[in-house]
């Protein structure tokens, strides 16, 4: 909007100068009067130009001051926001670091507990395995002893049966011989 206002005023000033010069050039006047009118118009035009220049400079200074003030405000706001962000980031980093350390410590404790439980379980299994192995050896000895006794008994029974069979064979022979003799 400021550009259009300045352009309009400059255009109006330029138009007024052209119109004034044209009016003077085409007006029926003597050369001296014409020069005086032209000098007056030129002075008016220079005064107006000087006024517009002063206004433009004043406006430029105002804009510069406003821009400097806005820049300073922006710097202050950016610094404040950066400080806030850094503070939050530091807090979050510290909190996450603490949480990670807690997780790490808990994981280490759990690992140590599981390791101890596994060692205790391995010891129990070893002891139970040794007990079972002892029981199996005892059972083996009992089975072997019982098998040996049963074998001995069976051997005795077989020997008795063999003797009985021999007796039966002998009795049968004797009976057959007796019957043949009769």
UniProtKB/TrEMBL annotation:
Q: What's a Pfam family this protein contains? A: YtxH
Cited InterPro entries: Desiccation-related_membrane, YtxH
Keyword annotations for this protein, in alphabetical order, are:
Coiled coil
The record, for Gene3D superfamilies, names: Apolipoprotein
Q: Which residues form a coiled coil?
A: 35-95, 144-182
Chain ranges passing through the membrane: none
The source's domain of life comes to: Bacteria
Task: Please verify whether the record's keywords include Coiled coil.
Answer: yes
Coiled coil: present as a keyword of the record? yes
* Protein name, entry field: Late embryogenesis abundant protein
Which source organism? Answer: Eremococcus coleocola ACS-139-V-Col8
